[in-house]
Amino acid sequence: MAEAKDWREKLFFVATGVRLHAKEYFLRLTGLFGRYRYCISFPSIPEGLKAEKHIKDFKAVSVPIPDEIFEGCGVGILVKDEEELERLLNHLKERGVLVSGVFKREGDRFVEVER
What we know:
Blueprint: H1 7-30, E1 38-41, H2 45-52, E2 60-64, E3 75-79, H3 82-94, E4 101-106, E5 109-112
Antiparallel strand pairs: 1-3, 1-4, 2-3, 4-5
C-alpha cells in the first residue's frame, strides 16, 4: 500500500482497494475479464487513481493491477482493443497522467508491450 499521510488517507486507500477488487472479482466471475486485451499500469496508486478519473468515455475499466502482471498493490486500466488503447493513452498523456507500462493479453497471461 502507498504510504498514507494520516488515517483518512489510509481509509481512502483501503476503501479504494476493496472497490477495485470487487470490480475485478465480478469481471472474473462473469467471464468479462477475458474480453479485455490490454492493461495499462501506473508508477503509483495515486497516479492510477488520477487516470481512473479520465476513463468514463472509453471502453475501459479500472481494477487492481492483475496478479498476472504484478503481485502487489497498484491500479490497472483494462482496455478491450488496440484502437481504444491508443485513444486512451493519448488522452491520458494530454492530461499529464504518467503510464509505467502497457501489457497485452496472451492466453491467460499479460506480456509487456514495447512502446
